[in-house]
């Protein structure tokens, strides 16, 4: 019996592979994966005018009402196919392309889609807009026309024959073929009950499933279902909204008196389990479509509690009233004034403490390395007298004399002791992600605390004015900023106690924290002002501060800081930081620490490099 079952399973698997391979319209031997071209395509998209905040990722298969042949109906394939689409926040390309029998053509198709997406705008009519974008792209770059013609001619050979289709489908197919050959020549398209076979050279309407609905922007969210790393591994799912079924009745198909049962009272502890349900994640990964419903519950009046926030008697100590700050909305291209409420805090329960004994040797080594920078000695060039010859000034003088334009200038260098004229504010990300473990002994928050302690020990020895702050957020109404040391305070055991009392917070509304830090540094009289940001991830929050919205607001806050005379610099331990930090801080405005345990030692070294530029 067991042998028969195994034989049936083997025969079934062989048949499934055979019929699926025969029914597939792709060419597996010429398949090209998006992962191998993702970075070059993103660079091409942005170089041709695409928005820098748009993320390029893989698209999920989309349900299409296609006319399938007999083999495809038997195999049950081609019900869902991945197509390219883009909007103001996303550029989604198929995870792999095998529509051509040639690898080079599939790679060229990826590049064409990236170029077309950079040219595209808001889509109102699928066929008309794609024709217009294609014609404008070919007119602007005539050298692309031969490549486009090769893609079109190779694709037309693989499309269904209009003579074998019904009347409406055949007319639509002819119109689409004409639109591909001569973009812009077709202005009206026949109607058909079935969708045409996918056009890989065109963009499809966007699926804005990742954006919150307009009616939900002001409401509370239930949070994330999976963490950030799992979200990157899961493919984007197709979803549909359904009405919640409130009916409680149903048809009873058996009589309860016929059900024999035996029960016994047993005391059980039915406390809820807060651990993650791995089976739910696997089920969601297997589903092709997710159904979402909005549960309409009548909100109770009177008292409203937010269980995410601790009670006042155990929460951090607030300092003064809240501070109203603006926030950048890239969709409106304007600042929303007084949109964010920021509250300054002192860590509760902090007591004066000495530097931990385990950090004393490292602190002593850093003090010894930075003592010689207390009074920095610089070379003054083009001096009339000095201890060294200024070779650059002498070379300029010699060249000018050869051309008959001799100008009197000093040819010596003199070394003088100069006073360091700079101030630094360190802003540490204290979001809940810092509660994650790096290994069996250390969490991210532990590494951040050690970094703040060693940074304070180093700069107190150096004598540069500095301030230490931490931040987290819980929606725009509750941006929390911990004051560890202000510019007017001394770095002492009280400051060390505040640092060691830090705990992981909530989310990362980075733009508001940078704007408040900019205001705090506006009172510094030093010529050079350095704003350091230590973080472990992207800007995010429970409300609309996700994805491109948070990235754009942070970028605008960084630009505001630079206009105010600050030098913002980001230090991250996020291994994917290179995907979004260049857009927010610039190519030279960030650094990635690949081994987070090295952050306490690397942070003072980075400060020395930044202040010696």
UniProtKB/TrEMBL annotation:
This is Nitric oxide reductase NorD protein. Gene3D superfamilies: von Willebrand factor, type A domain. PROSITE patterns: VWFA. It comes from Pseudomonas fluvialis. Residues 421-610 form the VWFA domain. The lineage of its organism: Bacteria, Pseudomonadati, Pseudomonadota, Gammaproteobacteria, Pseudomonadales. InterPro entries: NorD/CobT, VWF_A, vWFA_dom_sf. Coiled coil: none annotated.
